[in-house]
User: What shape does this take?
Amino acid sequence: MSDVLTHDIDHDVHDDHGPEQGKGVLGFIKRWLFTTNHKDIGTLYLWLAMVSFFVAGAMALVIRAELFQPGLRFVDPNFFNQMTTLHGLMMLFGVVMPAFTGMANWQIPMMIGAPDMALPRLNNWSFWILPFAFALLGSTLFHSGGGPNFGWTMYAPLSTKFAPPSTDFMIFAIHMMGISSIMGSINIIATILNMRAPGMTLMKMPMFVWTWLITAFLLIAIMPVLAGAVTMMLADRHFGTSFFEAAGGGDPILFQHVFWFFGHPEVYVLVLPAFGVVSEVIPTFSRKPLFGYHFMVYATVSIALLSFVVWVHHMFTTGVPLGAELFFMYTTMLISVPTGIKVFNWVSTMFKGAMTFETPMLFAVAFVFLFTIGGFTGLMLALVPADYQYQDTYFVVAHFHYVLVPGVIFALMAATYYWLPKWTGHMYNETLGKWHFWLSVISVNIAFFPMHFLGLAGMPRRIPDYALQFTNFNMITTVGAFIFGFSQLLFLYNVIATIRHGKKVDGQVWEGAKGLEWTLPSPPPYHSFTVPPHIH
Amino acid sequence: MLNRFCASRLLAVLAGLITGTSAMAATDNWQLNMYKGVTPVSKDMYDLHMIAMLICTLIGIAVFGVMIYALIYHRKSKGFTPAAFHDNTRLEILWSIIPFLILVGLAVPATTILMRMDDTSESDVTIKIVGYQWKWQYQYLDQGISYFSSLATPYNQLAGQGSKGEWYLLEVDKPLVLPVNKKIRFLVTSNDVVHSWWVPELGVKRDAIPGFMHEAWARIEKPGTYRGQCAELCGINHGFMPIVVQAVSEEEFNQWVAGQSSAAAQQATTENDPQAQTDLTRDVLMTLGKEKYEVICAACHKSDGSGLPPMYPPLKGSSVAVGHPIERHIEMILNGVPGSAMQAYRDQLNNTEIAAIATYERNAWENNTGDLVQPSEVARVRQGEIHEPTMVNKVQGGGLQ
Assistant: This one.
């Protein structure tokens, strides 16, 4: 990026904490409940994501424990289905989206030279909806009839006529999460478009800000679609409509179309900010500017636009007509062109750099490797005839876990290790970070790579028990999953230890880091830039 | 488990991977690759899969190769000073166009195969497949044969007791019998929720959508037994509705068809005739009843009869299971409850099985009514001698529903 100079900024307007709201527990609650500060809200988002990560991760371990051997009956099949459903919903809406929104809250004002987000009260509200939404969603597990058990994709009529009463609570929780996401996105767009420091033109913005700008537009476009889908579900369940019921003139496939019109751009909502993070981390530790910045921006925009015209690739086996299959196959394949550009540019950024491998860089490099593997299987899945054999098998499970775990989750890890010293003013424990990385990167492959084989050999997804033929790879997968799950405790410990008593760092933190956030002290002042910095 | 992974097996796996055929017996516990299958379509799918995998591997070698080179040599610890370049429009355009051309190369075979797959015309045999929670119904539209095919793995194996059979979870009571070298058209639909009929070796996967019918086809080139499973989450027992296809020669198929019709006719007379039923002892009914209950009913009503209220009512102490008249109980099993997940078992179970299930439900879990339900009573209800079961007095019936 460009060189940056800060004005003489008066840093003593506030401390690094918010205004006192009184003493004791009540004071503590009020301080966090009423805060409108972008850093405070960012922190809240990040802790919510951390808690959900362990809750949803525990659900994944229940699934993997059940699948350790055939015929286990560790949990009954209905509970198994509730686990797969809530694991998916929580990981998407409770982990990845809040985590990136938290990062956006912390980073975007600092990266564009603003004092805070554009709409601070909206910001407070969009966070505080979420704990209630997740309490509602989690409570379904304790309802009579059990929680939602139809998978996170909620296909009708399993989710309408055949679903437990708690489904209505899930629908309401999704509505709340949708409102939260839309408000968060409005805030991010308003901040980026209005609050940039003088001289920070759009094409000078850091990649993380760019990817979030596009993500926010995607969210505004798709969350109402999801809200519409679940509202139609609600109407079919209680108000006598037949949107998804052939007997009343509806069509179960309509649900899938509406859902995936939301669902596919949603995939890019999860992954675009991850692209942004990796585009920040790799140049820093390669000590070399990001290669092909302009093309990175264009590629992000093209991915976002293409993501709206590929949704039927989730439904190739539902009997859509030949013409539609061909169209959606071509558009899906086309997405690999801009995605390829991104990967090539990251590799070129590393090429002839002077690399060091601190924990954030390790996670970012692993991201490029393993996300690309997920991209390859994505290309294979786009080919309709082959997709007939992959669809709804563990091959698909392997594919999207490769892009989401060593993809998106690794990017989140990289981002946390990268910016945590800036946020807290303390350095994390590098040895522990390296242990966390190596345990994670090895176990994630033990967990997810054998799933490719299982899927190709014919194991369908979302089954609680399986034929003897699949035993070996399922055992390996379960072992990997447990190692991965427990390794994340190192991460939790490292974060807490850093906040409490990490070694003090200066403002620059990383030798090769460029960008406005590094011109601020660590931790940064409460109102990041009270005077806009000058940008050359 | 891992010690089974001896060198010879590894070699066999690798050989199988390279030649594309399963080098070992049908249950390859280390199968890595897709089935090549026994139909023209499945072979096309396999070939396309291999081409795609090859292309991805080559791109991967190139990209990861450059990256690994940089990771090894362009380190600060090796005293490497960073270059300053950060842009090259020509390069960007080049690595947009080359992948695009590769994609076009992939799209051509994919399109031709897809068009071939879509052509269901001029079929010889038409089979209608109906998905039910959690079994399949096969209807031979030209031959007038129709039957249900459900999981045949005994309950104790599912519960983790005793050793498991070779085809654990992949065995059914009545397989779908198909002739080889005939173009078979499948019409797939569903009775309740979305299912997906998938047999990897036939290269057929078709979602079963309630209220809509979609087509697929296969021409099986080799006699044999091919197994698959439901591929779309369809409720509690989604993992327990396998598919078994028995591909036989045309003569055997015709023989089988002839045998089926007469069996069905015979069954129609015996099942409807109360006189033709033999009475069974309590022990026989209870044993058979438990076996059937655990496989068919326990998914919803639970092994302990507690159900999953409010979705699936409990049977323990329910007015249906302990109350009188018993005909009401039998009638509910025979005809189901319209508009709910309770199906009609009239065509799925015979009189003896229904009698056994009813007996079991009336005597298990402290329901101790002491009632015995005999097949002849089921036959009477089936025949329609009792049309309107009298309403049950709930207090007399012994509890809430």
User: Anything to note?
Assistant: The mean pLDDT of chain A is 93. Chain A touches chain B through 99 residues (CB under 8 Å). Residues 362 and 438 of chain A are 9 Å apart (CA to CA).
